[in-house]
Amino acid sequence: MAKHVRPQYLILVSLVLGWIFDLLFWKKQIGISLPIFTVLIVIVGLWLASRARLTPARNAVWLLVPIAFFALVPIFRLEPFTRFTSAVVIFLLLAVFALSFLGGQWPRYGFADYVAKILGLVPNGLGLLRQPAGGPRKKETGFSLRSLAPVGRGLLLALPLLWFLAVLLASADPSFADWLNSVFAFLRIDNAAEYLLRGFYILILAYILAAVYMVAFNKSRKEPLLGYEKPLIARALGFGEAATMLTSVNLLFAAFVVFQFNYFFGGTANIMKTPTFLTYSEYAVRGFWELLVVSITSLVFFVAMSTISKRETGQKQRWFSGLGITLFALVAVILTSAFERLLLYERVYGFTRLRTYPHVFMIWLGVLLLVIVILEALGRRRAFALATAAAVVGFTATLAVINVDGMIVRENINLIRAGQDFQSSSPDRWTTALDYAYLGTLSDDAVPSLVDAYEMASAEGAAQLSEQIATALTCHFEVIEKPSDLSWQSWNLSRQTASNLWKELKAEPEFLVIETTEQGTYFLGGEESSCYSLFWD
After folding, report:
1. Fewest CB atoms less than 10 Å from the CB: which of 214, 225, 276, 325?
2. pLDDT tens digits, residue range 472-509?
3. What is d(CA 295, CA 328) in angstroms, rounded to the nearest whole number?
4. With contact defined as beta carbons under 8 Å apart, do 310 and 239 qualify?
5. For residue 118, what are the CA distances in angstroms to 87, 92, 121, 252?
6. Burial class (CB within 10 angstroms; exposed 0-12, middle 13-18, buried 19+) of 138
7. Edge-to-edge strand order for the sheet containing 515-516?
8. d(CA 251, CA 342)
9. Neighbouring C-alpha atoms within 13 Å toward the C-beta of 323
10. In a 3-state reduction of DSSP, which class is residue 530?
């Protein structure tokens, strides 16, 4: 156990952090509250470590850089998936930071280390928090929870006198009486269930935080890594069997690539050449998800083969690496085909969130495939886990940097401005039109791009386009995201910027005024339409 860091003290500090968590997040939208709480957790941990004369490892300190980056995401972004993935990555990075606080071994972790250590973080910490069942106890010379016992008994004894005096003072001054009523409003019976729930999760969170701190201060040194010296899973599969499996998959992929190479990259021409005359949506969607799943499955398959197969000689190792490189080369072609299909779909039907996520994901999957090939050629198979973790972090960071909702607006406006006019020869035809109702349902992250597009369209005299963008903005602020008084904990720069831009835009005399109703509809050209788009995929 770390010197001068007693479990009672950790629990008391964690209870304060739990109360701060309640203050920041209870019934409040996440905003500036997340970076504040993340910083508090880290600062308190470093302060406790300094009291115990513990110094964090340099490798562990480097993790604070991505932690700080993702903690700031809720201030700058409101797009839901970006915020969710950033929060998950913060949680995982903080866990790895605690696990490698003193030893800094996270760059050497394998897949088993990440899974086992993160899942066992809280249970191991709770075990460290338990006090010895027997044996003599040393006399406590510092602060402990036991020292608070006289204070608690004194407060209980003073309660009757405090109540009597408070009643007299309240009778003497009505304003003081109102203040007392507001202070003790939480004692009303209708709030009892809520405060019990809040007290319960504060207590649970306090024990979790204390457990994490205990692991960081006591079990984060250079401990044996799973499967580092001796494989965690016995290499039970012979080289012949593994080579046969890899060769079989390679032959299947090669046949698929050769047989359909022109179809893969034929783009628009393939739609007309197919006997059934595929529509754009059928052509893009029909193979996209299947090819993406094939790529991911191939990556998992190769990592599994690398883990459980035997390669007794250097020649066998070279053959195995060659088969793996061939596999990833073929998968790269398949992944490129999937990406090309998605690009075609986006060029025809425009960008949406559910198209942008896999768009970014496939780029990082391609990067990961390339890194895996390089690591396999260098014999650094244990680094597969680190490469995968880096790809996950990179994917999440990319979503935050590109501003998903802003990108959707920019790309869709660019398609309209470029005059794209793709059509299929089936009833499922698409004509160039802006789905401005969908753009209005996006978060405030999209507003700066919408305002820029509106001003550009107005300056160029594009009346229809400026009218559509004005409708999207009006629906967004008057129906989708109605102004509301949010607490300071929920402050977000994107929301603040969007609100300021909207006020400035409405103040312009030439801005198109669009009427909206309480039912979420708007009137444009004498016709009533809904502000809510039915188009989400």
Report:
1. 276
2. 888 888 888 776 667 888 999 999 999 999 999 988 88
3. 9
4. yes
5. 16, 8, 5, 38
6. exposed
7. 515-516, 521-524, 527-530
8. 26
9. 25
10. strand
